[in-house]
Each structure stands twice: as C-alpha cells, then as structure tokens.
C-alpha cells in the first residue's frame, strides 16, 4: 500500500514536470501572443495593464492602456492628474472602482513612497485595489520573484491538464488551485512561466472549444484522456442574474442638459448621469410617461418628449434594460439635485457604459405622441 502511494506521488511529480516543461517549450516555439506590456519590467506599467484587463478583453484593454501610458507615462503623472480627467479616460472600461483605487494607489506611491513601487509581494499586496493575482503578476514580472499568478486562465489550464474534479469557486478549491499553481511555477524564470500559462489559457486551452488537436500537452492531458474538456473546470455556484429597468430622462432647457455626479456606492459611483428612474418592469415609453414617478418630475411645466429604442447592457450579475427620453422644457424648469450644463461641457464628462452606448449611437429619436 505504501509503495502504491509513493508511486502515485512520483507519477504526479513527474506529470508536474512534464506540464511545466511542455508549457515553456510551447511558449518558446509557438506563442505568438503580442501585447504592449509584455516583457516590460516597469511595475507601474504592469500594474496598470493588469488592473485594466480585469473583466476586460485584451483587444479593448490595449487601446485604453496605450492612451493612459501616453498621457500618464509615470505613476507621478497619474497621481497629479485631475480625477475627472482620469475617469473620462476610463469611460467605457466599466467597473469604475478599479479606476478609483488606481488613483488612490498612484497618490500613495507618488507621495508616501516617493514614486517608488514596493519591491516585495507583501508590500505590493497592501496597496489598495491589488489582490493576490495582481501582486503575483507585479512581483514576478517586475522583480522576478517566485509567485505564481492564479487567474481564470491558469485554473482552467491546470484543472484540465491534471483533471482536477474540484470546484474552482469554493474556498477549498481556491486554496487547492493556488497551491497546485505555485508548485508548478518555474522558479528560475517566474516571469516567463507566468506569462506563458496565461497566454496558453487565452489562446490554446480556451474556455470554449480548446484547441486540443494542436495542443502540445495533449498526450499527458487528463481532461483530454477522460473526455472532460467540456466539463472542467467545475463551478459550484451558478451566477444569479437579475434584470433592472432604467429610464434615463435627458432634460434640455435652452441648450443645457441636466446632469449629476453619482454618489451612491455602486459600480457607477463618481460617474455622471441624466435623471434616472428605475422601475420593476419593462414598460414601453407610452406607458412609462404615464407613471407617477415620471409625471412628478414635470408638474406644471410644458414639455415635449422624444424616445429612443430599448438599450441593453449585460453585466456579470445583472442585465440592464432601458430607454432614453429626451424632454424639452421651458426656461423655468428646475431640479435641485441636478445641474444644467452646456452640451460642450457634457462631452467632457465620464458616463456609465449604458449611457455612452446611447450617446455614441446618435440614434434618431422618435417624437412621443401623448
Ligand atoms: S489537450 Fe485540450 S484540454 Fe488539455 S491542455 Fe491541451 S487544450 Fe487544454
């Protein structure tokens, strides 16, 4: 029995060596993935790219990264920037708490640390908005420290290769995959290894339709041998999604539009918006303008209304559905929670993605007959 356990653990160690070796070989000979921050050792640029790429596709994140680096080439420049200007540049990337943390951390590094990034894992991890994944990326890419990155790409690749039938989203599963990932790290060159496993997950062992037929790891891949590539990685929790119905009212008065900066502590905090009414069901514009919530906004005022078609935005946990009503009022209209700004000023503000989707489309609005 003892011999069998020993044999099993030897088999597993040899499989781990095969994995790491094959991955590095793939990286050297076949990895074509290009990204502007790849191979860079500047912790500021690595940090910026990693924060931008959270929940964002590389193609989209790259354009933002290039614009940011051009405008703010150093952490000091970012720390001195005007908050509204940085938010405007972030507009469209979503998950604005990332941007808020980015600015807070830039100020700490620039002013408290005299512009010098911490050069050890625990020091990096203490910074606002930086979790274990980003800390490992900065520690390994910038300072060549032996910390394995563990993100969705990494857990997918290793759960398939080692045919791990443990859920990746439970505490026990997360701990298991973090330890397995760390044990696989090529400590002589952690930067190359970490980049290789992420690139491999993004381009070969993809979430859907992995390229098993051309995969260098196929002969030793557990999921491939057991026909589990479509099943792994396992997830325990199903995402609960809910629908929300947003009706934005764009009130125009003598060439000015009513807007406000959101203060609620949600994903749109500090972004600007038009007057918003959220309701519990999807109503066509004709029915919505008869609701008390809408009518209360314009008691005693003459208005004319145009409407957009319905817009939709899919977020991780929620689907936003809604439309935009363009309301023209006479000169006396007031709304104490909102400020009337000229259209040229409106263009400099950062709005949530749902609104920019509408503004960019420049849709011809339909006049609403009352
Ligand atoms: S054989 Fe398929 S599942 Fe296994 S590592 Fe390669 S791409 Fe991923």
List strands and helices in order, with pairings.
Blueprint: H1 2-29, H2 43-53, H3 58-71, H4 75-80, H5 83-90, H6 97-112, H7 121-125, H8 132-143, H9 152-161, H10 171-184, H11 190-203, H12 222-225, E1 242-253, E2 256-261, E3 272-273, E4 275-279, H13 285-288, H14 292-297, E5 303-307, E6 311-314, E7 318-329, E8 339-342, H15 343-346, H16 353-361, E9 366-367
Parallel strand pairs: 1-7
Antiparallel strand pairs: 1-2, 1-4, 2-3, 2-8, 5-7, 5-9, 6-7
Helix pairs in contact: 1-11, 2-3, 2-8, 8-11, 9-10, 9-11
Protein architecture, described:
It is a single chain. With 370 residues, the chain is an alpha+beta fold. It has 2 domains: 2-225, Hypothetical protein, domain 2 (Endonuclease III, domain 1, Orthogonal Bundle), CATH 1.10.340; 242-367, Alpha-Beta Complex (Nucleoside Triphosphate Pyrophosphohydrolase), CATH 3.90.79.10. The protein contains 16 helices and 9 strands. Strands 1, 2, 3, 4, 5, 6, 7, 8 and 9 form a 9-stranded mixed beta sheet that branches. The longest helix is centred in the first third of the chain and has 28 residues, at 2-29. It binds iron/sulfur cluster (SF4). Iron/sulfur cluster (SF4) binds at residues 160-161, 204-205, 210-212, 215, 217-218, 221, 223-224, 229.
């Amino acid at each position: 029995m003892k011999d069998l356990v020993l044999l099993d653990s030897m088999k597993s160690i040899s499989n781990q060596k095969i994995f790491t070796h094959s991955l590095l070989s793939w990286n050297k000979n076949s990895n074509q993935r290009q990204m502007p921050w790849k191979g860079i050792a500047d912790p500021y640029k690595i940090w910026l790219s990693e924060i931008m790429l959270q929940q964002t596709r590389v193609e989209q994140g790259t354009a933002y990264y290039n614009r940011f680096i051009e405008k703010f080439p150093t952490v000091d420049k970012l720390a001195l920037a005007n908050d509204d200007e940085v938010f405007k540049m972030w507009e469209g990337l979503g998950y604005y708490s990332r941007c808020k943390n980015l600015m807070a951390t830039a100020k700490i590094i620039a002013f408290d640390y005299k512009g010098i990034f911490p050069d050890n894992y625990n020091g990096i991890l203490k910074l606002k908005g930086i979790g274990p994944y980003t800390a490992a990326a900065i520690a390994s890419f910038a300072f060549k420290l032996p910390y394995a990155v563990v993100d969705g790409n990494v857990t997918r690749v290793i759960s398939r290769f080692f045919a791990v039938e443990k859920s990746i989203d439970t505490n026990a599963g997360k701990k298991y995959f973090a330890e397995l990932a760390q044990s696989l790290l090529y400590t002589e060159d952690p930067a190359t290894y970490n980049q290789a496993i992420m690139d491999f997950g993004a381009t070969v062992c993809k979430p859907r339709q992995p390229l098993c037929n051309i995969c260098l790891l196929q002969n030793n891949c557990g999921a491939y041998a057991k026909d589990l590539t479509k099943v792994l990685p396992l997830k325990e929790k199903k995402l609960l999604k809910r629908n929300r119905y947003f009706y934005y009212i764009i009130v125009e008065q003598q060439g000015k539009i009513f807007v406000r900066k959101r203060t609620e502590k949600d994903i749109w905090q500090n972004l600007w918006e038009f007057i918003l009414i959220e309701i519990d069901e999807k109503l066509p514009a004709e029915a919505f303008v008869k609701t008390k919530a809408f009518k209360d906004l314009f008691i005693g005022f003459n208005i004319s209304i145009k409407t957009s078609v319905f817009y939709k935005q899919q977020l991780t946990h929620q689907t936003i559905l809604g439309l935009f009503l363009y309301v023209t009022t006479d000169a006396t209209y007031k709304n104490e929670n909102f400020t009337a700004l000229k259209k040229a000023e409106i263009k400099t503000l950062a709005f949530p993605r749902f609104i920019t989707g509408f503004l960019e489309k420049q849709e011809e609005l339909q006049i609403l007959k009352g």
